[in-house]
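lol forgot to send this yesterday, sorry. struct tokens for the thing we talked abt
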């Protein structure tokens, strides 16, 4: 397999850095090729602005979607963005790794998505008509590729349980798993989440890194989250609501978009 890890932590000598090393070592031991985009080391520019669209005439109002579409089609995006898009084309598996900061990904990683996911590349693809809303949610440029998250969190597992005060982890990660990964077509694997990590001792590090190595060994065989595909007939066009009667018993809100209950 060809694995791209997009790594978002400002300190390479961190827990996240050590887990990255464990993941790379295990993947290479399995014979996989690995590329890493270490965003802080690359001084990745996080904010989208005019400089992302060098051919935009100076007097023209910036509309990010249309500028992105035009420059992507004309191969006119900046070199840093084009290099990341090339890595995404190369990879058959993509991993986003980050510490949970304010219940979300660090801004630098969100900025990688905002800039690399150009219009025509990650969105705005496929037929848009009265009967079809493009290729997205299970279809698109990333179709056939796997993706997963590696996340570390200071909070306890209970804090992220169904009744936990932080909200359930599947809900917090839904906008990333469903909105950022499934939308452009990735097959999304369950995330690897390490909880209660801020005072991790050596013994617990061995357990956590062992669990991560196991996930790296089973990347090709792990069952994905069974999100419903947009164009498989489950949604009413054009309002894109789940058709009545298809919901898994008891499922509401985000869980409606998962086709069957998880086994665990
Ligand atoms: P580090 O600080 O590098 O290390 C954590 C522990 O692991 C330390 O005890 C360290 O000694 C140990 N360790 C590191 N490397 C090794 C190694 N090689 N071997 C053995 N032990 C090692 N948490 C939440 O749950 N929800 C939030 O919304 C949230 N928001 C945050 C917002 C901010 C701005 C910040 C700074 C933190 C937030 N946190 C939150 C906590 C955050 O998720 C954790 O601090 C982070 O996940 C820890 O990962 P790290 O790589 O930075 O760990």
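and heres what i got for the seq, position by position
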């Amino acid at each position: 397999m060809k694995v791209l890890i997009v790594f978002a932590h400002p300190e390479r000598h961190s827990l996240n850095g050590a887990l990255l090393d464990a993941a790379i070592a295990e993947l290479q031991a399995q014979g996989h090729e690995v590329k890493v985009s270490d965003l802080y080391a690359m001084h990745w520019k996080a904010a989208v602005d005019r400089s992302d669209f060098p051919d935009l005439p100076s007097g023209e109002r910036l509309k990010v979607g249309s500028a992105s579409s035009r420059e992507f089609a004309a191969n006119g995006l900046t070199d840093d963005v084009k290099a990341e898009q090339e890595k995404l084309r190369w990879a058959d598996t993509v991993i986003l790794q980050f510490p949970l900061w304010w219940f979300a990904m660090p801004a630098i990683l969100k900025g990688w998505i905002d800039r690399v996911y150009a219009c025509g590349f990650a969105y705005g693809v496929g037929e848009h008509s009265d009967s079809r809303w493009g290729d997205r949610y299970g279809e698109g440029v990333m179709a056939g590729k796997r993706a997963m998250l590696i996340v570390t969190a200071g909070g306890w597992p209970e804090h992220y349980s169904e009744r936990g005060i932080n909200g359930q982890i599947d809900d917090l990660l839904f906008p990333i798993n469903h909105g950022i990964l499934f939308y452009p077509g990735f097959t999304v694997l369950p995330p690897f989440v390490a909880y209660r990590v801020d005072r991790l001792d050596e013994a617990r590090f061995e357990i956590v890194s062992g669990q991560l190595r196991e996930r790296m060994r089973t990347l090709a065989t792990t069952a994905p989250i069974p999100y419903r595909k947009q164009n498989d007939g489950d949604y009413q066009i054009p309002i894109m609501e789940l058709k009545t009667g298809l919901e898994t018993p008891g499922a509401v809100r985000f869980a409606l978009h998962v086709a069957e209950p998880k086994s665990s």
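The domain at 2-224 is CATH 3.40.50.360 (Rossmann fold). anyway ping me if u want another try
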